[in-house]
């Protein structure tokens, strides 16, 4: 390949971008390779940000991802992509640079869903944080180290719960406000989420179920001092963590004629980006949080996973297909998995639990906070979650991949199956 | 030889010196039903899958039975109660979750880094003394003179057993070690001997625990007997069972590892020479040793539910033999598996078992073996085997030489 050939450009220099680029090199790609990242930092690892970094055990800049292959790439960091011209095969960056590409891997990830600012509500007070990037974590760490009187966390998803756990470890007073009856209700349902409620009670987190934060009030210095709730009550706080999940910034693709919105960029099963007509766009692939692909284990449902393991596996798969011929584009088959550590418990899950119509604790017990639970839908096992019982999870994952009946493994040690019922998911939220 | 009697061949002492051709035959079927109704698992992939299967139970030990004494009070009242107590409080190697996990967590907490570091110095001292003792001889028995005394001395010091009682411990350990041998558990005479030794060591431990409560020292037994408030603690019967387990499980296994190590090194003189020149090779060499000549060849489990694996169904209630030593030689997992190659990469062996019962004492065994082998290759000048293969002990699972005669020029 001659030097002026455009080669492959990877947009997004986080986990999926880096691992995708490495997979291209390992797959034998020897041409020009460019990595574009909106942040100025070299690729870093996000899971420690809401755990060790907040706890002060790890410096934010000590999270760099190791490079697993010699990339020999051109890096363009600190420059977000702002536009894509598919017919000319040109990617435009914020500084005006135009990059030609032969093939493009889109791995631009997701951003923390910001606190919605409406016209007339004025500027947001200071002291309100989100937690997604390394800079977010660094700023929040400084805020927590200053010893706020009460931290208010809005949203009881994984990030909200991990942050609450860290704050208690730091000895800070914490209130967690969640519209649902329990934390993790959206991903695990409230039957399992109730275990986190009991952990929070033990740890001294003030958990407020069914609570809607409406607005923040600032003191004279412009710093947050109070959160106003929908029911008219208020929570005094001087440090807020908004943990409302993530959105995909696909606005730079607005003019590209693709199927992209805040929920992701729609792809086919081979990780090829689809145009607005639903056809694979030539040379365009996506991986990681931004890629919304049909999942073979969930009836082809389009899902954009926000999981570390998916970013690695999907980037590798997309890279493989990028180097393969058009008649050898393989489908991505990946049972999603995630982990979290909070309140001294190692939580690991496989599959997509939302959509389940039943859940059963198949090993251990909720009361002991050491258990494995399986989710079922229409008589099939579709997901499993473990609290401090991760060693058994692969056995269940294998059964779930095989489409086994629910519950899938009978006769396990420490099994009574007395604890089962509806998983109790909240109503889907309107976007 | 029909496939369904191959495992009986494995347990036949005549095949003790080289069971590996039988393992190769067994691996032709990853899971094979034997004529006695048990299922032998012999490929790396099948073993790996089953050690992480929640339907495998380790609670398959036959109930305790104390021998008749002729004293009706003992035979009809005391011993049946003792039997029941012991049956309800098995060591964690024969327990399933959740009890297993609780007990294991408590024991692991006592394997602290300073304590293991302390062991390092102790082992160096003991190893030096044992080799000094054979100075002047031209022939030694590695088992009797070296590998047999070492592990018990180490575990006694770690537990906090007074030095003057170590000899008694050696005797108990020898009897009790056979209780871990699956094919000898059914033997009534053996079980009586085990029960008698168990009672004796239990009484001793009970006294020692009382002593550790009165005068706590910095040892594992003191730690186990005096738990920090708020932390999980075990009852006295579990405490005694755990202490006995540490003694027994750490004994013959380590004897085997060290003896097999020296046997393998003398059979591979180039490797012996390389280790002598570069003691830093020991960790890799020991990993390969754990693959090539593991101290425990198999463990048994019971299926709690029907398990579909490798094209067959293991029915609930069936006995399962996890043939770790066969998985270690599986050509589908290891290139050139019958070659002893300490430079092997990606050596995921089952030398310490696997899954939730993975050897608790693995770090200790590695330290002991490293110090022992390094000292032996440095100080035994021109070692040669007096008999090859050496005679083996009867056990097929805890497989190891009964004697290992080594001729030497001198002790350096």
TrEMBL record, chain A:
By its UniProt entry, which PANTHER family does this protein fall under? Answer: APOPTOSIS-INDUCING FACTOR 1, RIESKE DOMAIN-CONTAINING PROTEIN-RELATED
Q: Which InterPro entries match?
A: FAD-oxidoreductase/Apoptosis, FAD/NAD-bd_sf, FAD/NAD-binding_dom, FAD/NAD-linked_Rdtase_dimer_sf, Reductase_C
Note whether Oxidoreductase occurs among the keywords: yes
Q: Keyword Oxidoreductase: yes or no?
A: yes
Pfam families documented for this protein: Pyr_redox_2, Reductase_C
A GO term for molecular function: oxidoreductase activity, acting on NAD(P)H
Q: What is this protein called?
A: Pyridine nucleotide-disulfide oxidoreductase
Q: List the keywords (alphabetical).
A: FAD, Flavoprotein, Oxidoreductase
Give the Reductase C-terminal domain ranges.
338-408
Source organism of the structure: Methylobacterium haplocladii
Q: What positions does the domain FAD/NAD(P)-binding occupy?
A: 8-315
Which GO cellular component terms are attached? cytoplasm
| Gene3D superfamilies, per database record | 3.30.390.30, FAD/NAD(P)-binding domain
Cofactor(s) for this protein? FAD
From TrEMBL, chain B:
Which GO molecular function, any one, fits this protein according to its record?
Answer: monooxygenase activity
Q: Which SUPFAM superfamilies match?
A: Cytochrome P450
List cofactor names only: heme
Pfam families with a match to the protein in the record: p450
Keyword RNA-binding (UniProt): no
Record keywords: Heme, Iron, Metal-binding, Monooxygenase, Oxidoreductase
Q: Do you know which PROSITE patterns this protein is assigned to?
A: CYTOCHROME_P450
Q: Superkingdom, according to UniProt?
A: Bacteria
Q: Which family, according to UniProt?
A: Belongs to the cytochrome P450 family.
What is the purpose of this protein? Answer: Cytochromes P450 are a group of heme-thiolate monooxygenases. They oxidize a variety of structurally unrelated compounds, including steroids, fatty acids, and xenobiotics.
Name this protein carries in UniProt: Cytochrome P450
Q: Per the UniProt entry, what species is this protein from, by scientific name?
A: Methylobacterium haplocladii
Give the organism's phylogenetic lineage.
Bacteria, Pseudomonadati, Pseudomonadota, Alphaproteobacteria, Hyphomicrobiales
